[in-house]
Amino acid sequence: NLLSVAYKNSVGGRRAAWRIITSVEQKEKSKGNEDNAKFANEYCKKVEGELQKICDTILGLLDGNLISKASSGESKVFYKKMKADYY
Q: What is the mean pLDDT of each run of 10 residues along the chain (87 residues)?
C-alpha cells in the first residue's frame, strides 16, 4: 500500500504540472507568442518523459516481482489494479 501511495504522489504532481503546462502553451499560442509556446512545449515533453520513466519503473516492478510473488488473491488483485493504473 505504501508503494502505491508513493508512486501515486510522484505521478500526481507531474500530471498536474503537465495540465498546467499544456494550458500555458495553448494560451501562448492563442496570444501569438510562438516562442513562449515552444518553451512550454519543450518543458511539457520533459514532464512526459519523467512520467513515462516512472510508469515504466513501476510496471517493471509489478511484472517482474510483485504480481508473481503475491501470496494471496487479494494481493494479486491489488497489484493488477495498480498495473492497470500505470499502463
A: 91 96 97 96 97 95 93 93 91
